[in-house]
UniProtKB/TrEMBL annotation:
Residues 1-18 form the signal peptide. Coiled coil: none annotated. The keyword DNA damage does not apply. This is Tripartite tricarboxylate transporter substrate binding protein.
Length: 322
């Protein structure tokens, strides 16, 4: 409830509650068939986290396969992602904007009264799936996910998450529902801030994507307690990390990574971006991105991505409403 109060205040201040959305800010671009001039890749979280890494990688990848294209990255964090999505909502009809999206696109509308849903935007490409790790400092007395659950039953255990209503929050909601343990989550604006919080000792645990934390794991600055997945990663750097299911914690959740465009695009503009995304996925840049971010490569384009979002929305709503 504390998290809901904080995010509601942020949304009111940002003017993104239902009924307060901005009017389309790109009327001059409405009906355009292709972007004209520089394109903006909106990242709805702070620099340094998984969404920022994804947005910059895709921006560079699209440029590499599309002659003449220029893409700038614009971090518009706030409201646990809602500020960035609301900004894109105001660009309806313009092909000059993209947004690096993930599961908060689904969990925010399921949790808070916002003026958008996934249907407000144009699905371009689902890049892959990203499973989170539960990590702690090496000197932490918590030794596993199962141990974290056990200790949370007897004392207060603080865990950093990226966004009060994001995919990390979904994971901890599943933990509460399946184990009865209530780890006390502290929302931050992105993985970079979550990382700093656990390294600095403000929290004991953090839920982070492998790409966000691999450097600290290699350096021995953090230890991985588990991965919230059905199966272990096959990447050599992560293969020894046990799953939550192995430890008796029946929780698994895949965060998707993808790209969306504003709603109301001309069909040819939508086709332009889907074709550009296909070229990117067929390129070495995509394979390098997937490998460097430790993703499970499961691309989907346009309407297929839209169908995935519709199905996933129902799953997220079931978890968040518990």
């Amino acid at each position: 409830m504390r998290a809901l109060s904080v995010i509601t205040a942020l949304l009111v201040a940002s003017g993104v509650l239902a009924g307060c959305s901005d009017a389309p800010a790109s009327q001059d671009a409405a009906g355009a068939r292709a972007p004209a001039g520089p394109v903006t890749m909106v990242v709805p979280f702070a620099a340094g986290g998984g969404s920022d890494i994804a947005g910059r990688a895709v921006a560079d990848g699209l440029v590499s396969v599309t002659p003449g294209l220029s893409v700038n990255v614009d971090n518009r964090e706030g409201g646990q992602g809602a500020v960035g999505y609301s900004y894109l909502l105001g660009k309806a009809g313009s092909p000059n904007y993209l947004l690096a999206t993930e599961t908060s696109l689904l969990s925010l509308p399921a949790s808070v009264e916002v003026a958008f849903s996934h249907r407000s935007f144009t699905p371009v490409v689902k890049l892959g799936d990203d499973y989170t790790l539960l990590v702690a400092r090496p000197d932490s007395p918590i030794t596993s996910c199962a141990d974290a659950v056990a200790q949370a039953r007897t004392r207060r255990v603080l865990a950093a998450i990226s966004g009060a209503m994001g995919p990390d929050a979904v994971v901890f909601s599943q933990i509460r529902a399946t184990t009865g343990a209530d780890l006390d989550t502290v929302p931050y604006e992105g993985g970079g801030e979550s990382m700093a919080a656990v390294l600095g000792g403000q929290v004991e645990l953090a839920s982070l994507n492998p790409s966000e934390v691999i450097g600290q794991l290699r350096a021995g600055e953090l230890k991985a307690l588990c991965v919230f997945a059905e199966q272990r990663y096959t990447y050599p750097e992560l293969a020894d990390i046990p799953t939550s299911l192995e430890q008796g914690v029946d929780v698994a959740f895949a965060q998707f990574r993808g790209v969306i465009a504003p709603g109301g695009l001309h069909p040819q503009a939508e086709q332009y971006w889907v074709e550009a995304a296909r070229r990117f996925v067929d390129s070495p840049a995509y394979r390098d991105y997937v490998a460097s971010e430790f993703l499970q490569a499961r691309p989907a384009f346009g309407p297929e991505f839209g169908a995935y979002l519709a199905h996933a929305q129902g799953e997220v709503e079931q978890v968040v409403s518990r």
